[in-house]
């Protein structure tokens, strides 16, 4: 028996079907072990020795792999064809060796597509594990561990409220923060444009004033309304005719097939997908055998795939769309073993796979790969200049005419923020033509700051700078979101205060390690390891030699010294100059003290130098809705019973009310659904829970209060939810009893064992006429006709499922189901014979099967 190890169960099931009965295919479910999250997992003093720990939730799977490995004659490691895949195979081999379950014959195979030809060809050409790739994995993992476990404690102690820092994560965050600074420093400039709408032979086009009174104009030449109106009047008064027509042929070549990075960029532009979502959908398409492996820097396609693409193009279009020679693209990746084949369909004859997001992403991959082998687009780029009778005022129109669309008939690459003015269509114009002037406009504009990063433009910029690697971009961006260092609005990244504070700390105290050039150089050194050009421990030693002393120096500084340095570093942001020239640090509460950044138990805040006489504070980088707003204590009044002050404050977990001072003070959070908070409402919140009365059946109290999950009722240890804070104070006895009874009955949920309602009734099966229903099952959605159940593939979105797709799933499942053995007809019982008189009772014969 031959044991094959892959990552995912979906992949295992497909490959086992391809290989036959002599093979047993098991999934590792991704990585099986990692460095423990504790000090000492990497020991720089012992050649960066690493202590690995098996994942607790993989114990069952590891046992299954070890049990099968003991019985196997050969172990085939068939994990993904990249650095992480090589590492998983190495981890599996190491664990099996420790358990003395490693077969003598161990081989490594890789394939870029989960298709029968690709898998069988890979099995026929095994190799050994690539030690260079494994060393590169160990170097990156150790480096990320050392940065995280050395730098994060410095952050926690010197910058309360900070969550974490990472080698590449922090540099990506700096990109977003730097763009925010550019936007804040930008000063808009007013300018005007003068355009004329014209028409020739029924075709409208737009011209722009490029010369006025003999002076050539650039974009900012007309800077005020008076000049703009004068220029407009001159254009309106003039009779313009075509002075020159400059037509030049142009060719546009198709872009190469997708790499990991370009797929993430284009999916973000055209489909609005996050990088993380793109990679998740691509993974499922790969596991279903629809596309090739999606983590690659390569742009080349296999020769057979190129032939298949050219055949599909010829079948779809005429011969003119197929270039004379196949197109060859060159990869920029330094390491051939990491530059696998580009992302492409496994079957170019399939122009549609799955539904929903899977279908949309597959369509993008299919079109891009097809277009990469199509003919170039041919066009004419035309520049037309029109002058008035004086020759001193000139209008210009630019545009293009597509002579042959080529690959543009199928696919056009998206753009981030720029628009090509040359893409406008122009009518045919000749010298001396005098097009009709329809309208003249003078429009005011203002120069715009650089746009905030979208996911596409951030990935593009990181790749340009050489920061990180495309396979890591999705997880980096997800971490920045999860840490709330950034937020996303209208598909653009905004730096949160917490992100700015962490970036400021790192720039001030660890400037080298968040430098773009340094990070890119370190990535190149790690690439040299995977290419066999550098030794991994040497790379780590060079990094650690400078990094460790720097962290020790910062750790020795007092928190107040760190805060003072950040106060100066962040001053332009925290205390921007005021329009009236007054002191931006002057306290708005006392009018005498100076504001400065301080560090507290729950994070950074701005405080007045006259504390404790002036208690003005303003939260900074602590998150929550009140971040950045003035949060000095607001006195609402005094409690009539105790005479103690009632104040509204803001803390780590948001706004709250406090009654009294010190340890004995009583506090209550302020719910979000409360409008304007006054003393009466504050006292109500402080005196919760509210006893409604005694339950008429049990005689025990019913109380209303607000907890971690919102407002609720409680009676005898049983709970019922309330819909709003108002209900906490308004719910009476009758309503409370009813709500508690409804909650006890299960809130209207179906009883155990009751038939579930379908998610959707799809209609009658087009061939059997049985009703097809979409159901939610224990293991996910499925379709049923009452007899056959078919699970929905990962590539089919439930809300996009069509009747025909459901029917095909049912038909395929019914065809694959083994025939049920026919039940044997029960044997007829022989008529019982009466025993002979005076004869001993006979023994019963054994029944025959």
TrEMBL record:
PROSITE patterns: TOPO_IA_1, TOPO_IA_2, TOPRIM. Residues 240-262, 625-650, 814-849 are annotated as: Disordered. Transmembrane segments: none annotated. Keywords: DNA-binding, Isomerase, Magnesium, Metal-binding, Topoisomerase, Zinc, Zinc-finger. GO terms for biological process: DNA topological change. The record marks 31, 140-141, 144, 156, 295, 483 as: Interaction with DNA. Residues 164-169 are annotated as: Interaction with DNA. One of its GO terms (cellular component) is chromosome. Residues 820-842 have a biased composition (Basic residues). Residues 1-114 form the Toprim domain. Its EC number is 5.6.2.1. GO terms for molecular function: DNA binding; DNA topoisomerase type I (single strand cut, ATP-independent) activity; zinc ion binding. It catalyses: ATP-independent breakage of single-stranded DNA, followed by passage and rejoining. SUPFAM superfamilies: Prokaryotic type I DNA topoisomerase, Zinc beta-ribbon. The active site is at 293 (o-(5'-phospho-dna)-tyrosine intermediate). It comes from the Bacteria. Residues 130-551 form the Topo IA-type catalytic domain. HAMAP family: Topoisom_1_prok. Belongs to the type IA topoisomerase family. Monomer. Releases the supercoiling and torsional tension of DNA, which is introduced during the DNA replication and transcription, by transiently cleaving and rejoining one strand of the DNA duplex. Introduces a single-strand break via transesterification at a target site in duplex DNA. The scissile phosphodiester is attacked by the catalytic tyrosine of the enzyme, resulting in the formation of a DNA-(5'-phosphotyrosyl)-enzyme intermediate and the expulsion of a 3'-OH DNA strand. The free DNA strand then undergoes passage around the unbroken strand, thus removing DNA supercoils. This is DNA topoisomerase 1. It comes from Sphingomonas ginsenosidimutans. The gene is topA.
